[in-house]
Amino acid sequence: MFSPPLPGARARVSSSADIERPNADPGGLEASLLQLIHDHQQTSLKLRDETEKAKKDAIRTAMRVSDLLVDTVNGGVQEGFINEKRIEFESRTLAATVIRFAKQTHQWLAASHAINTAIKEIGDFENWMKTMEFDCRSINAAIRNIHQP
Predict the structure, then answer these.
(1) Mean pLDDT, residues 10-15
(2) How many Å apart are CA 60 and CA 27, to the nearest integer?
(3) What per-residue string of b and e applies to 19-56 under the rule 16 or more CB within 10 Å gives b?
(4) Mean pLDDT of 121-131
(5) In the 8-state DSSP scheme, what is residue 114?
(6) To pair with 42 at 20 to 30 A between CA atoms, which of 1, 81, 106, 145?
């Protein structure tokens, strides 16, 4: 029923069971089991340490990826914000230019209306002069007809 000691059992680890029974057989089943427990604990500690290191590395890597993603998104947001400000500035400039052109157009319309009015007045004056000239000739012709013997 007893199995021979395992080849992996190398050194004996003292435990509370060894302290209570100092007469335990060093090459027996109990020593092999203690060695197995000790090896298992050592392997578990190593595995736990490796897992902890891997976890810390994964967290560091995830944080780095997160920072890079945030920087990338923030870069795009910042570029969008800059473009928005530029567009707002350009739209204000364009609105000011449109207002200035509207005022200038109204001035040109007023000037052209004034010129049209002046031309009409000149045309009216020319027509009045022609009428006066015709009336003067008519009066002159009537006076000559009266003074002719």
Answers:
(1) 47
(2) 47
(3) eeeeeeeeeeeebbebbeebbeeeeeeeeeeeeeeeee
(4) 86
(5) H
(6) 1
Q: Residue 52 and residue 135: Cα distance in Å, rounded?
A: 121
Tokens of 116: 């049209």
Per residue in 18-57, pLDDT (tens digit) is 444 445 455 689 989 999 999 999 999 999 999 999 999 9
HEC secondary structure over 32-45 = HHHHHHHHHHHHHH
Element (H, E) at 15: none
pLDDT at 60: 95
* pLDDT above 50: residue 65: yes
Q: State the pTM of this model.
A: 0.42
Closest by alpha carbon to 17, among 4, 3, 1, 28? 28
Q: Please say whether the dihedral angle defined by the alpha carbons of residues 3, 9, 10 and 16, taken in this order, is positive or negative.
A: negative
Distances from the Cα of 75 to the Cα of 64, 65, 69, 84, 85, angstroms: 16, 15, 10, 14, 15
Q: Which residues contact 27 (CB under 8 A, 6 or more apart)?
A: 5
- pLDDT confidence tier of residue 13, bands split at 50, 70 and 90: very low
